[in-house]
């Protein structure tokens, strides 16, 4: 089963042979660190939004309800769907969703199993940097070779009124057009508030990485080598898979990496940009950082 640490899955019910989801765009307060809360925009009380899990071939209806003070839309990043459902108002026939209204995105999932994302595509310069994004994963129901499967969304934010190099508890507004980001997150949290990725010796582990932010992030795993198994939701043939321990994840890209848990310990898994593994440029390790932790 695919797990998104610190982020729920989006529940669904079957309606007339389709998976029916409700995705609510709304203001969200997200605790990045203990006592440090940002006021952003997310889905269903979460930043990033809940992970949507489907199967290839299924029909889905995703009702997007807008409780924001601005019109919005949702783009299903990497999915091959009808133009009217693609979620880019003003360019495509897909409508914008006014405050207090909803739109039903209905389509058949025709892509093969893989890792994708969803995010706003209206007033993007503001809305994406307020937090409006999430994971969309097409599962492979026949797969048995992976023992643990994790999804991690990479995001970055600028919290206002927190002087550089200082840390104090409170609730902070976001500046979505700032480029000097001071908090870098994995699944909406900063280290040491991120949840470790639990593994057992001998298991095969997949980690799915997605990025909807501004910066590219070179993600590095200590103590292990991994195979780059998929890019943008497309499986890479075995003969073309690279063996790496660091992979740069640019904006708009997803990668799946797979490794054998064969070196027990507590191993850092983090962005290698020095500013990105701090919390507001303070000295202790923080930011876009978690651990791969062996358990018995």
Please render the helix and strand layout as text.
Layout: E1 2-3, E2 12-15, E3 18-33, E4 36-43, E5 49-55, E6 59-66, E7 75-77, E8 102-108, E9 114-119, H1 124-127, E10 133-139, E11 148-157, E12 170-173, E13 183-186, E14 197-199, E15 204-211, E16 217-221, E17 226-231, E18 234-235, E19 243-244, E20 246-249, E21 254-260, E22 266-271, E23 289-294
Keywords:
Immunoglobulin-like, six-stranded mixed beta sheet, globular, 296 residues, 23 strands, 2 domains, 1 helix, eight-stranded mixed beta sheet, mainly beta
Describe, in plain words, how this protein is organized in 3D.
Residues 38-142, 181-281 form the Plastocyanin-like domain. It comes from Gordoniibacillus kamchatkensis. This is Multicopper oxidase. With 296 residues, this protein is mainly β. It has two domains: 7-141, Immunoglobulin-like (Sandwich); 151-294, Cupredoxins -  blue copper proteins (Immunoglobulin-like, Sandwich), CATH 2.60.40. The protein is built from one helix and 23 strands. Strands 1, 11, 13, 15, 17, 18, 19 and 21 form an eight-stranded mixed sheet that branches. Strands 2, 3, 4, 6, 8 and 12 form a six-stranded mixed sheet that branches. The protein has a five-stranded mixed sheet with strand order 14-23-22-16-20, with no helix packed on it. A hairpin with a 2-residue loop joins β2 (12-15) and β3 (18-33). The radius of gyration is 19 Å and the shape is globular.
Biggest sheet overview: 8 strands, mixed
Number of helices: 1
What is the rounded distance between the termini? Answer: 19 Å
Topology-level CATH name of the largest domain: Immunoglobulin-like
Quaternary organisation? single chain
CATH architecture of the largest domain: Sandwich
Helix content: under 10%
Number of domains: 2
